[in-house]
Design goal:
Structural class of chain A: alpha/beta
Structural class of chain B: alpha/beta
Shape of chain A: globular
CATH architecture of chain B: 3-Layer(aba) Sandwich
Oligomer: heterodimer
Largest sheet of chain B: 6 strands, mixed
Shape of chain B: globular
CATH architecture of chain A: 3-Layer(aba) Sandwich
Number of helices of chain A: 10
Number of strands of chain B: 10
Distance between the termini of chain A: 32 Å
Number of strands of chain A: 11
Distance between the termini of chain B: 40 Å
Helix content of chain A: 25-40%
Strand content of chain A: 15-25%
Largest interface: A-B, 31 and 33 residues
Chain lengths: 283, 249
């Protein structure tokens, strides 16, 4: 976040729209979203259906038909992602922009050993000798704090726990050394104690390697803890953008409503305030 | 009176023992939380009480009566359970009306039409939802239906298995408010499983912390204010949840 002003942004997104057809005509799930990202940590928060995951997917051009994405500009490190051929795009995905999905149970291949899966991620993008691949895999597993990498590479996904599965996902996503990491609810399927470990790990690796991070989550406090800047999304639009440290000073009624609805450790309120959805459903 | 009493409860799945020597009493009208990581056996205790994990030894008493291992109709009228995932716990091909009438039919209770209508109102669902199917409802609405179904037989004890963990924060607030209101109005006893400590602070009076099948500590919910736990595992769980950011010392 230090050098973002001096150099061109890593990602420049202007007026992104994603729409899906319905019986009542096309519905925009992302309505004109713009932001620029340097080598910093950006959090995108919102409820289900706010379009936050679609934004993450649209950056990688992963919106499947019949969904359609359009933007005035999607520039990644000077490359126009919209004009890239599907083949070039495939070379970019994973190698320069990576995405960590929500649930390791569904995103790991159940019939492939963990070692083979991580090696595959590397071999797709780089040509390396077999011994070099092996040592990179072991080194990466070590970096995500897996104690016994030699044993773990021979295991299948069903033989590891959820927290370990998510660390393996992170290893797989980071092994080609991407510049931008998109983490879509990386810890929602995990326990609180493991959650902190996984996020600390992502945080450490991102800082160490100077990557850009987009952390997508519905948990305001979690995002505030791990990001520099926060975008709050509601119904496909950004309603508020602020520095993470200033989240408690947020002014938009939606952000304030979300913040107030979270129970606190020292709860004194008899009833939690509930969002009155009618007030800004039109905006 | 004691609503739920567990004495030396051991629960096994096959040859694996998942809960060992659980002991606690929940007073009538109390709201008690079971806290711990996945795999610590907290949901298994609820399942054993509800009769879904029949391989247990020890003693389970609900409202002064000991529970047997089999299906118990009379027990169902005293104690009901709400499950974690409202997307999985409602029958996809049964309308809300059918779901809510079914317990009344099984127990041969009359006046079903009026009871269903009253229950929908009690959980804050509009009458127009009565003939809808689960896929036509949002997550929060489905969880309201699941709570309504559990309350149809007017039980005194409710077992809640992570009732809000699948929901957004704003919807979570609505469901927590609803559960709190129902408990106040109907004098219910709650035994609630969760891994979210702030929810415990909002909903519960006391909590039992579980680790690897054992209860390591039973503490009042007020211990969450300053983190005054005696067990090291509880302290680490408290720290991982972010502690109490409102208190600076």
């Amino acid at each position: 976040m230090t050098s973002e002003k001096t150099q061109a942004p890593l990602l420049d997104l202007q007026n992104l729209r994603v729409s899906f057809p319905t019986p009542k005509g096309r519905v925009d799930v992302v309505k004109g979203l713009s932001f620029t990202l340097g080598r910093e940590r950006l959090g995108i928060v919102g409820e289900s259906g706010s379009g936050k995951s679609m934004t993450g997917r649209a950056i990688l051009r992963l919106i499947r038909r019949p969904g359609v994405q359009q933007a005035d500009r999607i520039l990644f490190d000077g490359i126009d992602l919209q004009s890239l051929s599907e083949r070039k795009m495939r070379d970019l995905r994973g190698a320069r922009i990576s995405m960590i999905m929500q649930d390791p149970k569904f995103s790991l291949n159940p019939v492939m050993t963990i070692g083979d899966q991580i090696a595959e991620a590397l071999k797709t993008h780089e040509r390396l000798a077999r011994s070099a691949v092996k040592s990179r895999v072991l080194e990466m597993l070590h970096a995500v704090r897996i104690n016994d990498p030699e044993r773990v590479v021979t295991l299948y996904p069903h033989e590891v726990s959820g927290g370990m599965g998510q660390r393996i996902m992170i290893a797989m996503m980071l092994i080609p050394r991407p510049d931008l990491l998109i983490a879509d609810e990386p810890t929602s399927a995990l326990d609180v104690s493991v959650q902190a470990q996984v996020l600390d790990l992502i945080d450490e690796l991102v800082r160490e390697k100077g990557m850009g991070l987009i952390l997508i989550s519905h948990d305001l406090n979690l995002v505030a803890r791990y990001c520099d800047r926060i975008l709050v999304m509601h119904a496909g639009q950004v309603v508020e953008s602020c520095a993470a440290a200033d989240l408690h000073k947020a002014t938009h009624p939606y952000t304030r409503g979300l913040l107030a609805a979270v129970p606190r450790m020292e709860e004194t309120r008899d009833e939690l305030p509930v969002l009155d959805r009618s007030t800004w459903s039109g905006t | 009176m004691i609503a739920i009493s567990l004495k030396n409860l051991d629960v096994s799945y096959g040859t694996t023992k998942v809960v060992e020597g659980a002991n606690f009493d929940v007073a009538e009208g109390e709201s008690f939380a079971l806290v711990g990581e996945s795999g610590s056996g907290k949901s298994t205790i609820l399942k054993a009480i509800a009769g879904l994990a029949p391989d247990w030894t020890g003693e389970i008493s609900v409202l002064g009566e000991r529970r047997g291992h089999g299906v118990d109709h009379a027990f169902a009228t005293r104690c009901q359970m709400v499950f974690q995932d409202p997307y999985g716990s409602l029958h996809p091909r049964k309308s809300v009306d059918q779901v809510l009438s079914e317990p009344l039919k099984i127990h041969g209770l009359g006046n079903r039409d009026q009871r269903v209508e009253e229950m929908l109102a009690a959980v804050g669902l509009d009458r127009r939802f009565r003939y809808r199917y689960p896929h036509q409802l949002s997550g929060g609405q489905r969880q309201r239906v699941a709570i309504a179904r559990a309350l149809m037989l007017e039980p005194k004890v409710m077992l809640l298995d992570e009732p809000t963990s699948a929901l957004d924060v704003s919807v979570q607030a609505e469901i927590l408010n609803l559960l709190k209101k129902l408990r106040r109005e109907q004098g219910l006893t709650y035994l609630m499983v969760t891994h979210n400590l702030p929810v415990v602070s909002f909903m519960c009076d006391r909590m039992a912390v579980m680790n690897k099948g054992r209860i390591v500590e039973i503490a009042p919910a007020s211990a969450l204010h300053d983190g005054s736990f005696s067990d090291p595992y509880t302290q680490s769980l408290y720290a991982a949840s972010g502690g109490n950011p409102d208190r600076k010392d």
